[in-house]
């Protein structure tokens, strides 16, 4: 499927923020967007996140004192604004012991890497 396919692996604030900005702008511009959450990123997309996303450096620290929309809100806006779907990596869910009922409400559920890569074959892939 053509469109924008975003892989979030990192749990750092800056990478999650930029992935969320990319997803929301892409969706607002009418592009189909698929977000695949795995490894360290997944823990930040649970109904009860285990911790806040830590900043990687000074920019992440500076964002906290500015009026920057939270990455969680930007991902929700991507879903609300357009054709965006956010999915949790099924393998990461197994490793972390996460169930569908634990996922934040704006996530569409679990997806395997094989399905994600198959869907992304004709589109643009970005990894954060």
Question: What can you see in these coordinates?
Answer:
By secondary structure, the chain is an alpha/beta fold. It has one domain: 3-Layer(aba) Sandwich (Hypothetical Protein Ychn, Chain: A), CATH 3.40.1260.10. It is 41% helix and 18% strand. Strands 4-3-2-1-5 form a 5-stranded parallel beta sheet. Helix 1 (13-28) packs parallel to helix 4. The mean pLDDT is 95.
Provide a short characterization of the protein structure.
With 128 residues, the protein is an alpha/beta fold. The chain is built from six helices and five strands.
Biggest sheet character: 5 strands, parallel
User: Which class best fits the helix and strand makeup?
Assistant: alpha/beta
**How would you sum up the global shape?**
globular
Number of strands: 5
Shape-level CATH architecture: 3-Layer(aba) Sandwich
Kindly report the average pLDDT value. Answer: 95
Strand content: 15-25%
């Amino acid at each position: 499927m053509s469109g924008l396919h975003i892989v979030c692996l990192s749990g750092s604030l800056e990478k999650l923020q930029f992935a969320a900005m990319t997803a929301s702008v892409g969706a607002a511009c009418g592009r189909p967007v698929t977000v695949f959450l795995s490894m360290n990123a997944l823990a930040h997309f649970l109904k009860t996140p285990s911790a806040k996303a830590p900043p990687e450096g000074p920019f992440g620290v500076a964002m906290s004192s500015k009026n920057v929309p939270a990455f969680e809100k930007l991902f929700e806006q991507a879903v609300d604004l357009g054709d965006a779907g956010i999915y949790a990596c099924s393998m990461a869910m197994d490793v972390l012991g996460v169930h569908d009922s634990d996922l934040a409400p704006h996530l569409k559920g679990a997806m395997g890497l094989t399905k994600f890569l198959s869907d992304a074959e004709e589109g643009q892939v970005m990894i954060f």
